[in-house]
Amino acid sequence: MSPVATADPARRSRRGATRTFSLAIAIASLGWSFPGAACQSLPSIYFGLDSLAVDAAGQAQLSEFAAEAQSQLDVLEAVELVGHSERLGTAEARARIGLARAEAVRDLLLALGMPERLLRTRSAADTAPQVETDDNVREPRNRRVDLRLTYTPEALAAQRAERDAAIAAGRPVPLC
Questions:
Q1: 108 in Cβ contact with 59 (< 8 Å)
Q2: Per-residue pLDDT tens digits for 113-129
Q3: Which residues, 6+ apart, have CB-to-CB distance to 117 below 8 Å?
Q4: What is d(CA 158, CA 59) in angstroms, rounded to the nearest whole number?
Q5: Residue-wise over 93-106: b if at least 16 C-beta within 10 A, else e?
Q6: pTM value?
Q7: Domains recognised in the chain with CATH numbers
């Protein structure tokens, strides 16, 4: 299955363009990948019930992401970590655990050498589930952290120019 990038066209920053990506979704496609990487897929980071712990597999996945991101610091403006929760408990509790999960991922990325100035955390609580459920239904895929990457305008312009030149020359352009 080819990875698919999703973007939120309503979100823009004055200094750069913001595109939203889940850790479960590729950070690739038509100029929205890490510049220089045709297609890169990132794994999901999921959490246990009422848990803030990132297991060994999740830590390894974050380690790979951090290594790639650190090689591209000149084009990254921000990495927003958005924590999610299930529809269990009160709205306040869901918001708290979503933020705590985002902070847990931030702490791991800091330990892996990511610059603190790039990392921003927030909670989406249960407002953006991967799987729709009724209240008080457990769904492990909704216990996760998503990334929102903001690239510098210069990096985006350079990647678009590279893509446009490839199209003009008749060279294939990856549609990750």
A1: yes
A2: 999 999 999 999 999 99
A3: none
A4: 32
A5: ebbbbbbbbbbbbb
A6: 0.72
A7: 17-168 (3.30.1330.60)
